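tool_log.txt
---
The assistant was asked to compare two proteins side by side. It first ran the structure predictor on the initial sequence, then on the second. Raw inputs and outputs are pasted verbatim so the downstream comparison step can read them without reformatting.
(1)
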Amino acid sequence: MRNLFKGFSRLTEAIAGGMLAAIFIIFLLQIILRYFFTPAGWTLELIGILWVWVIFFSCAFVVHERDHVKFDIIYLSVPTKVRMVFAIIGSLAVVAGVLYSFLPTWDYIDWMKIRKTSTVRNPFTGNKIPLRDVFSIYLVFMAVVAGRYAWLVFDIVRNGPPKTELELVVGFNVVDDHPRVDVPHEDNDKDQETTK
């Protein structure tokens, strides 16, 4: 099962990398066409479409939860049990927010089928692409994020809160496992009594 997840992760990274490479190549083509031949409007629109797909596809499948920027000053200063509550509440809030907005988002994206791309055409049919197809990746993103954070709740209950960067580097929980210097501990008091 682990090999399956690893293979899927590598595949998604390759797809995201391929889209970024396509954006770069199309951008170079756009420059060449503009300065040496006739400018082509489809290059700009295709870059925009690919950029939307790279962002939401990568955030759904490539970027891990630990890679997101977080404001975690309070989270890092509390014991593990409180962190667990914070992490569960935060994850459930993400799931609830995504699920609450899923149907209205689907309704709007489905409505966009009446609008089509200006210059980019489907290479197989020659028809302009409905904007519903362009922005459908956002629905995939929403579904995957809801699923990932629902799984995270289960994982937090089973294994505790996710480790912070500091815990991964240092190897232990700084708040619970390491005594603070500015707070007197029982061990320190006992040591002082025995030396007297």
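(2)
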Amino acid sequence: MAQMKRTVIVASAMVALTACAPAGYDPANSSAAEPVAVAAAEPTATVEAEASPSAEAPAADAPPAEDVDLTEKLVGKSVARMGKVVTDQDGWILYRFDKDTADPPSSNCVDKCAEVWPPALTDGNPELTGVSDDKVGSVTRQDGTRQLTVGGWPVYRYIGDKKPGQWKGQAVGGTWFVVQPDGKKNLSCLPKGTPKAVAPPADSGSNDAGGSGYSY
């Protein structure tokens, strides 16, 4: 069985603000976006994870992936208007995808989809703040990289978010939603209609998401 050591700070309060953002609201500039209050926990905790064919907890001795950006930290916090979210170490809000599965964990966002929704990849030892250790694991993707899961759901960034704290990926395609620290969808702030995803990057060979076959 894989073992992992993580520094875990357990949230003692998560304050959800459910009012939806007004037009033009920029959460990145809001002074109300603060981490939830947390209670001090033991500096480190060793957790033995159950192994399964399709889901695995990150192993501390796993070699880092090469030539990929790793998500080194998961932060559970509450932000103005949206409420409970999970961000990476740089403050980018993370999402989950309805076409994935959580039991067992499996990612179905590959190729052009993964260019628009970069998976949160791990070397097996993410630092956790405000996210319970027992909610975090990993799943091996088709290309052999390991993706973090929260509540069993693989998590992603969105290239349509231009700076940390934005959530322009909320409800895109009716299948993408901001993920909460327990892995559930955050449905506090839903846009009118169904937003479309931005196109994959130009260097992927397509400038038009609609004409590229990308439909997530």
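---
observation on (2): The radius of gyration is 17 Å. The chain has one helix and 14 strands.
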